[in-house]
């Protein structure tokens, strides 16, 4: 490995920056997963109220396939 790159990669500040960046990515993925789960819960409740799947798609942004899978 190139000495300049090796020094940069092994630098404490750089490791901290990349560590925080990794934590942020993990947090963002967790938030997105939570949003998706909330959409699925909402869609399931709307299905129980006999709301048409097309309306649920509009309200939640889920695909008709995702909504259909909730019926099973």
Give keywords.
72 residues, mainly alpha, 4 helices, rod-shaped
SSE topology sketch:
Layout: H1 3-10, H2 12-48, H3 53-60, H4 64-71
Helix pairs in contact: 2-3, 2-4
The parts where pLDDT drops under 50 for at least 5 residues are none
Largest sheet, if any? Answer: none
- N-to-C SSE string, H for helix and E for strand: HHHH
Distance between the termini: 54 Å
Radius of gyration: 21 Å
Name the overall outline.
Answer: rod-shaped
What is the helix fraction of residues, given as a range?
over 70%
Continuous helix count: 4
Going by helix content, strand content and strand pairing, the class is mainly alpha
Which percent band covers the strand fraction?
under 5%
* DSSP summary, beta strand count: 0
Report mean pLDDT, rounded to a whole number. Answer: 89
Please, could you describe this protein's structure?
- The structure is a single chain.
- The chain has 72 residues and is an all-alpha fold.
- Helices cover 85% and strands 0% of the residues.
- It contains 4 helices and no strands.
- Helix 2 runs antiparallel to helix 3 and helix 2 crosses helix 4.
- The mean pLDDT is 89.
Condensed summary:
The protein has helices at 3-10, 12-48, 53-60, 64-71.
């Amino acid at each position: 490995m190139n000495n300049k790159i090796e020094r940069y990669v092994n630098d404490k500040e750089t490791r901290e920056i990349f560590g925080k960046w990794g934590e942020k990515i993990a947090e963002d993925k967790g938030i997105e997963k939570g949003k998706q789960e909330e959409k699925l819960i909402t869609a399931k409740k709307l299905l129980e109220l006999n709301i048409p799947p097309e309306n649920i798609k509009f309200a939640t942004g889920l695909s008709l396939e995702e909504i259909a899978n909730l019926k099973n």
